[in-house]
Amino acid sequence: MVMAVYAALLYMPEDSDWMTSEVRAEHHAFGEAAAEVIGGAVALYPTGSATTITVAGGPGGDVLVTDGPYAEAKEILIGLYLLEAADLDEAIGWAARIPTAWRGKVELRPVLPVSSWPF
Amino acid sequence: MTVTPQQQLAETVRVEGARVLATLIRTLGSVQLAEDAVQDAAVAALQTWPRDGIPDDPRAWLTVTARHKAYDALRREAARPGKELAAGWDAPLVAPDLAPEVLEMVEPDSVVRDDQLRLIFTCCHPALAREAQVALALRTLAGLDAGAIARGFLVPEATMAKRLTRARQKIAQARIPYRVPPDAELPARLASVLAVVHLIATESHAPSSGEQVARVDLEAEAVRLARLVNELMPGEPEVLSLLALLLFTAARRPARVDAAGDPVPLAAQDRSGWDHAAIAEASGLLAEAVRRSQGVAGPYQLQAHLSACHATAPTYAATNWDRIVGLYDLLLSLSANPAVALNRAVAVGERDGPAAGLAALDAITGMARSHLWHAARAEALRRLGDTGRARDELRQALELAPTAPERRLLSRRLAAMPSQ
Predict the structure, then answer these.
(1) Is there a domain that residue A59 lies in?
(2) How far does the CA of residue B180 sit from the closest CA of chain A (Å)?
(3) Is residue A58 part of a domain?
(4) What angle (nearest 5°) sits at the alpha carbon of residue B43, between those of residues B37 and B49?
(5) Are A88 and B85 an interchain contact pair (Cβ–Cβ within 8 Å)?
(6) Is the dihedral of CA B286, B207, B408, B364 positive or negative?
(7) Which end of chain B has less neighbouring CB within 10 Å, N or C?
(8) Is A79:A47 a contact under the CB 8 Å cutoff?
(9) What is the mean pLDDT of chain A?
(10) Which residue pairs, CB below 8 angstroms and at least 24 apart, start in B374-378?
(11) Residue range B353-380: mean pLDDT, rounded
(12) Which chain A residues have any C-beta within 8 angstroms of a chain B C-beta?
């Protein structure tokens, strides 16, 4: 069975603190429980540190740099896990064990295999 | 209604094609590829069967033809330059095995049934939006094309086609599995399946007059799908109950609209025009659901009991309103729903008189924008002799009513209301 990779994108309310020792401990426990299916993980600093870049017109155009995240929203991306699973139900099973699933929200996005990247 | 040989033929192709599709989705691993193959086979059948006669085993013919079509499509795809780029977008997950002996294979009935059950759960997977679930169920399980489904829900065909394409892509890209859920998840997943079938029956806008040429009878499709689920999962109390509910409702259909296509209220319906064979069948199914549910009635069983109360009452006046109020109370205890509360209030009015009914209507919040609520208030006020306020309520209902037949019905009531 060829496994699929899902990005589990972690969203939390903008004003929440996701770096407390309690949250860290929960993620640590998830990381141990799900070690066999986690293909990678990223935790992000708060959006106050974000910078958004856009190039006007096309390649080589003016580089526009703005302070802050791309989308202003009540819930912000705080990190992600890459999960290996046979199908969506299996991925949902793992995603439901990520601490962010009860502290915020987890969005599952299937990851395109590198061989079929459109870019 | 007389059925022409062509219609009979098209019906066979549609029903058998839907069965073939369920198996092909599993063996090909792609909804899109399987749908295209079955579509091509159906076209071939409609071309050759009128000339050569319907084969002894139509499904076997369609299965083998569809497999060959899929095989051809895959070969064309493989020969196309740049296929590496296309793979992964909506390509089959597993390379299908289409060896010559597989191409000629025809699955036994038991396998086809298992495949149809898998397909039902895939179409109604919670990762798909409800409207996508509904569209997929009608496309793949009922074998309706996008145009027919679009006509049934009064949306443009392009909208429906896009909805189906997105749903197929999501199944392929997110890998929504093709299997019957494990027991632990089954109750919740089955509830989703039943909600889809129920929605097809209630949200359809089947044209009741002969104005539209290609009539799409989604209520009949819902009954057919409920029968299919009941056949595939025999003895499930809520499945039995939903089928009973749909049959009770469909049984009243001949009397539900008048010659002009306008709705006839229950109180005014000619009960001799109801389909009493369907009512008897529904009663039997409901009795079996009660036996099998061991005293715990689910929401569809309660609704079926409500429908049974109406369908088996000799006259409107002789309806057992006390039992109906009790059933609505139980239904409301499962989930608060203003529409259910409204029906309960109407039943209270029939049981305890218009003053009690009006009080029950006033106790419901959040219905000020509902024409049904204003129409019910108008009826209670009329019976209390307050025709002035009843007229005001009818005018508000008229303003809020969403469909022309409902507006015509309300206009007639307003015209019939005596001035004070």
Answers:
(1) no
(2) 11
(3) no
(4) 125
(5) no
(6) positive
(7) N
(8) no
(9) 90
(10) B374/B400, B375/B410, B375/B413, B376/B342, B376/B345, B376/B346, B376/B349, B378/B413
(11) 94
(12) 2, 4, 86-89, 92, 108, 110, 112-113, 115-116, 118
Is B53 or B376 the better-scoring residue by pLDDT?
A: B376
Question: In 3D, which of B39, B10, B5, B7 has the Cα closest to residue B24?
Answer: B39
The answer to whether residue A52 is domain-embedded is: no
To test the contact with chain B by mutation, choose from A116, A117, A119 the residue with the greatest count of B C-beta atoms within 10 A, namely A116
**What integer pLDDT is reported at residue B272 of this predicted model?**
93
Q: Which of B175, B183, B189 best probes binding to A when mutated, by most A CB atoms within 10 angstroms?
A: B175
Q: B157-183: per-residue pLDDT in tens? A: 999 999 999 999 999 989 999 999 999
Q: The domain B337-420 is classified under which CATH number: 1.10.10, 3.40.1350, 1.25.40, 1.10.600?
A: 1.25.40
Count: domains in chain A:
1
Mutate to test the interface with B, among A84, A89, A106 (most CBs of B within 10 A): A89
Is there a contact between B174 and A92 if contact means CB atoms under 8 Å apart?
no
Least confident of B84-88, B104-108, B314-318, B373-377: B84-88
Distance from the Cα of A4 to chain B's closest Cα (Å) equals: 8
Look up the CATH number of the domain holding residue A24: 3.30.70.1060
* Predicted structure pTM score: 0.85
To which residue do tokens 């889809």 refer?
A: B196
Distance from CA of A8 to the nearest CA of B (A): 12
Task: Give which of A45, A46, A52 is closest to A66, Cα–Cα.
Answer: A52
Shortest Cα distance, chain B CAs vs residue A21, angstroms: 33
| Length reported for chain B | 420
Report the chain A residue with the minimal C-alpha distance to residue B128: A88
B206: pLDDT strictly greater than 80: no
The shortest CB-CB distance from A88 to any of B84, B85, B174 is to B174
B177 → closest Cβ in A87, A110, A118? A87
Q: Supply the pLDDT for residue A117.
A: 61
Parent domain of A37: 4-46+72-114
- Interface predicted TM-score (ipTM) of this complex, two decimals: 0.81
Of all residues in chain A, the one with the smallest CA distance to B89 is A116
Does pLDDT of B210 surpass 70?
no
User: pLDDT tens, B258-311?
Assistant: 887 778 889 999 999 999 999 999 999 999 999 999 889 999 999 999 999 999
Tell me which H or E stretch contains A42. strand A38-43
Residues of B in contact with A88 (CB under 8 A): 125, 127, 174-177
Which percentage of chain A shows pLDDT scores above 70? 95
Return the higher-pLDDT residue of A86 and B263: A86
In a domain, A63, yes or no: no
Burial, B172: exposed, middle or buried (Cβ in 10 Å; 0-12, 13-18, 19+)?
buried
